[in-house]
Amino acid sequence: MLDGNNNNYISSDKKTVLTVRYQANRNLSKMQVSFHWWAETYTSLHKHDHYEFFIITTGHIQHTLNGNTEILAENTLHLIQPDDVHQFSQLEGCKSTHINISATCERFEMLCSALGISVSQLLNGNCPLRFELSRNEMDFFMHRAQQLNLQMRDDDTDCSLFQLTVCEMLIHAISILYKRHPMRIDDNPKWLSTLLKQLHSPDMMSCTAEEVYRMSGYSPPVVIKKFKQYTGQTIQSYLVKLKIDWAIILLQTTDKTVLEISEELGYSSLSHFCKLFRAQTGKTPGKFRISDNKRSFDEE
Predict the structure, then answer these.
(1) Which residue segment(s) compose the domain that 262 sits in?
(2) pLDDT in tens, the chain (300 residues)
(3) Which helix (H) or strand (E) holds 97?
(4) Is residue 18 a contact partner of residue 81, using CB atoms and an 8 Å limit?
(5) How many domains does the chain divide into?
(6) How does DSSP classify residue 134?
(7) CA separation (Å) from 289 to 195, 254, 282?
(8) In a domain, 242, yes or no
(9) Predicted local confidence at residue 253, as pLDDT
(10) How far apart are CA 12 and CA 80, in angstroms?
(11) Long-range contacts of 293-297 (CB under 8 A, 24+ apart)
């Protein structure tokens, strides 16, 4: 219920819940997105009128969400929805830090729409909206966080660069959440949910359709039919999209050659890999890396 100032609420256990409004955040109010680091001992119990991703960058932390308390580990990505009530508390003897990436409801919906999905599709199901990020995924976010650190220290930085970098992080976080969320379809077979989670592991970068059949425990015709029914994609197109996503991360975060990346993803033909990459991104891997490095240099 409301307390006297119309900004805070009283939870069912009589604790005051602060309401964090996006207008109070200069960046959210001005650009509809925001970014910051958090390394304090605890936060008050609070809720937002906007969306917020947080990523644990070091240590473990106690997190209470809508009355449920858990210990979250390093590399955890978590989405907090508007009106979720949550709180962070440092564990005794354990220092932790995390980054927060926020967006107003309007901007969040626009970013989802740009990816061809709706917010309801992203949030459908009863699973917690959190995942453990791979090393390459963490490298992406840490690299962008470092760029933002430099931008925020430079008083002459163009706000558009800050906004672009935060939106890039938000899009990547939304993509990860959407692709790895196992309960978007409530009647999704358990074996398929397990299979999809396995396919997103870095260990499965070079996965083939034959390996998908073997991992599923079902015959190819059954897997082909159910995969198309529940994901809307063929196994081959799904794997290609996954591999190109990994290729983009490897191009952005490592010095591996295009040939080395192609081989790591299971492509014996470099020309075939480059053709698939161009079909997905509009650029060859080499040109993609050059343009990404140029943009990073310009931003820094």
Answers:
(1) 190-299
(2) 333 333 554 444 456 889 989 898 888 999 999 999 988 778 889 999 999 999 999 988 888 898 888 888 889 999 999 989 999 988 777 788 999 999 999 999 999 888 888 887 788 655 568 888 888 899 999 999 998 888 776 655 568 888 999 999 999 999 988 877 654 444 568 888 889 888 888 889 999 999 999 999 999 999 999 888 877 789 999 899 889 988 988 888 888 999 999 999 999 999 999 999 998 888 899 988 876 555 444 444
(3) strand 97-103
(4) no
(5) 2
(6) P
(7) 31, 10, 13
(8) yes
(9) 82
(10) 20
(11) 296/143, 296/147
Do 100 and 48 have their domain in common? Answer: yes
Q: At what angle do helices 159-180 and 105-114 cross, to 10 degrees?
A: 70
Q: Is 2 within the bounds of a domain?
A: no
In a domain, 274, yes or no: yes
Q: Would the pTM count as exceeding 0.70?
A: no
Distance CA 206, CA 111 (A): 29
Report the candidate in 66, 50, 136 with the shortest Cα–Cα distance to residue 101: 50
Structure tokens at 67: 């009355």
Which residues, 6 or more positions from 229, have their beta carbon under 8 angstroms from its beta carbon? Answer: none
H-type alpha helices, the chain? 26-31, 105-114, 119-123, 135-153, 159-180, 190-199, 209-216, 220-231, 235-253, 258-264, 270-281, 285-299
CA–CA gap between residue 296 and residue 267 (Å, rounded) = 28
Tokens (6 digits) for 247: 């290729």
Cα of first residue to Cα of last residue in the chain, in angstroms, is 47
Nearest alpha-carbon partner for 129 in 177, 91, 188, 92 = 177
